[in-house]
Specification:
By secondary structure, this protein is an alpha+beta fold. The protein has 12 helices and 11 strands. Bound molecules: adenosine-5'-diphosphate (ADP) and magnesium ion (MG). The site of magnesium ion has 4 residues, from loops. This is Protein kinase domain-containing protein.
Length: 315
């Protein structure tokens, strides 16, 4: 955004009062932050640097982004995005070996908790949530950014119980991938249950583990933005049924199921769910990334327009 600010010379605690933790991730703690002057409330994502030499005074932020640790990539990526379905970064601080991202406060909590507490959504609710997810994904992909860690924990509501206020967070794994048609990503990352087969398959280490032979070299087969649409398929499956499409207590078996695209939409959890909804899930959970729907194609799917059989108000 245009009013985007980097503060490397200021102590975050002089500007914001940091309150209790709102959530924890693998790499960070997110705390309530109250602006001391305006009293406005934000969320501060606090990440520790391993080694982070401060840039010389007067050096451009751009140069700083390019030349420093991976952790700064999140800032580099998120500052390019401006969309109602993506969390907004207001300013950021580097202070005392830590990075502080001052973001919108999304006080409604994770969609994961919503589904775990209240069970599956109605089709109408799921459609409202999924529309926001797809719009956010379409925007980031149009900006050449792949999220790579889309999951229910990374979809937050701005207001408690308001399913129309969903925003995508956590660009910690996100990467620039300028061409959507070319395979330009090589790192295996993400959360297994939500990981696309081409991401799983990409690692020779994973291949070796599944085949029971040692890895010849640690090579990767590149993949692209389509991996986010697989994760969207996993998310839609979970919103509708309350269950994960790929689950197993054994890690290799889980990965094998993902690679084979083995999932089921039978059983009591899927009873009464419209064929259109199942069709959209099936067109996202497609093993071949080239055959998988894009965000734009998913937005144009009949289910996104239609009215589900299982009604109910949104929110
Ligand atoms: P990590 O990169 O370490 O996974 P996240 O960005 O996913 O960190 O944040 C970790 C958790 O903190 C989230 O799952 C969520 O519960 C909470 N959180 C993140 N961003 C916000 C926010 N803007 N407002 C409120 N809570 C947030
Ligand atoms: Mg996270």
């Amino acid at each position: 955004g245009s009013n985007f600010k980097l503060r490397t010379d200021a102590d975050v605690e002089e500007v914001y009062r940091l309150g209790p933790a709102l959530g924890h991730g693998g790499f960070s703690t997110v705390r309530l932050a109250t602006h001391r002057e305006t009293r406005c409330k934000f969320a501060a994502k606090v990440c520790c640097f391993v080694i982070i030499p401060l840039p010389p005074r007067g050096s451009s932020t751009n140069k700083y982004n390019c030349s420093r640790s991976v952790i700064l990539r999140e800032v580099d990526v998120i500052q390019r995005l401006e969309h109602p379905c993506i969390v907004k970064l207001h300013e950021w601080f580097v202070h005392g070996g830590k990075l502080y991202l001052i973001m919108d406060l999304l006080a409604g909590g994770e969609l994961l908790d919503e589904v775990e507490e209240h069970g599956p959504l109605t089709e109408r609710q799921a459609r409202a949530v999924f529309l926001q997810l797809l719009l956010g994904v379409q925007h980031m992909h149009s900006m050449g950014i792949v999220h790579r860690d889309l999951k229910l924990e990374n979809l937050l509501m701005e207001r408690q119980g308001d399913l129309a206020s969903v925003k995508i967070v956590d660009f910690g794994f996100a990467k620039k991938c300028s061409s959507s048609s070319e395979e330009c990503l090589t790192t295996v990352c993400g959360t297994p249950e939500f990981m696309a087969p081409e991401v799983v398959r990409g690692s020779s280490k994973v291949r070796a583990m599944l085949e029971g032979s040692p890895a010849a070299s640690d090579s990767f087969t590149p993949y692209n933005a389509a991996c986010d649409l697989w994760s969207c398929g996993v998310i839609l499956y979970m919103l509708l049924s309350g269950q994960a499409p790929f689950r197993s207590s054994s890690h290799p078996r889980l990965l094998r199921r993902i690679l084979a695209g083995h999932f089921s939409m039978e059983g009591p959890a899927w009873k009464g769910i419209s064929p259109e909804a199942k069709d959209l899930v099936a067109k996202l959970l497609v093993v071949d990334p080239h055959q998988r729907l894009t965000a734009a194609a998913a937005l144009a799917h009949p289910w996104m327009k239609g009215s589900g059989r299982r009604g109910g108000a949104v929110g």
